[in-house]
Amino acid sequence: MAQAPIDFYFDFSSPYGYLAAHRVEALGAETGREILWHPILLGVAFKATGQSPLVSQPLRGPYHLNDMKRSARRLGLPFQLPDGFPLATMAAARAFYWAEATSPVAAKKLALALLNACFAEGTNITKAETVAAIAADLGFIAEAVMAGIADPAIKEKLRAETDVAIARGVFGSPFFIADGELFWGNDRLADLRDWILTGGW
Amino acid sequence: MAQAPIDFYFDFSSPYGYLAAHRVEALGAETGREILWHPILLGVAFKATGQSPLVSQPLRGPYHLNDMKRSARRLGLPFQLPDGFPLATMAAARAFYWAEATSPVAAKKLALALLNACFAEGTNITKAETVAAIAADLGFIAEAVMAGIADPAIKEKLRAETDVAIARGVFGSPFFIADGELFWGNDRLADLRDWILTGGW
Fold it and tell me: Is residue B1 included in any domain, yes or no?
């Protein structure tokens, strides 16, 4: 019988989500678990927790900016903050769910391309047109992407995914849930891996 | 020539500080670096960052309570939150600096005993009398501890250490500074170790 999948929550405006997105499928392969990607709008969770975007905070902002860069260097990934960071990422998240309805595999490729555009190349991916152009480079039909981003059912899907995430205890990005256990942060992927492989401790 | 020491900042009311205190000297031995322990009052830093004690926060509180427990289990350390958590820890921190003026080694032993009383046994260590009793079990003279905790010069030392910490960018516990590089969290000790051993990346 197939093992339960791992839920991978992230916001398209999350630098640590970008880093984790490059690692999580390898963890899925190693543990034999499917990874379900769930882009969400972290701002909604921030309202519940009273948090604000990290890089704008005194002390915590400068620390994390340095930590994002050195974490990326360690993983061998290019890194820069996009213009206008932190970004509104409704269009990107909706495009993901629109693509996922046709092909989860294609949706993950789109998500990675959007995250790379944002954090490897520094592109502001807020606008639907930008998202559609990046998707078009992967072979999606730009007009169909635009229609998907504007589709009320897709908007509702993103709202519902964000609500479910918060109800399950998600408050940051990246966030992982496996076998009912929650792990927050790119720096906890090794813990998640060990938890699954050992059955927990 | 001796290598530069590693600064280890923590608050006596910090569960993750307790966990790190049990690990940091082994890291010092492995890397050949002296560890300088600096208890501080994290509440002062929280005023600068707008943060509040973790376990009282929606979503973040329940997550971290579970994470503290599983982090302790993984390290084979007993764990419970003390009565009245989060605690005011001026007395404990002042006792540390009082003891350190005589013997940094004895001060570290005292710090570990206080952290164990707090997070292994669940003792509320806020009161000076409680701190003095724990110190007395280690051979300190209780009256001398009490006098140290009340000494204006020791109070000023704690204030100054906390101010210096914030000026250096410290905003959480545990927090490490080595060779000008900042690392936050018990879960970043492996990164700190690798950074020192490799010279950084």
Answer: no
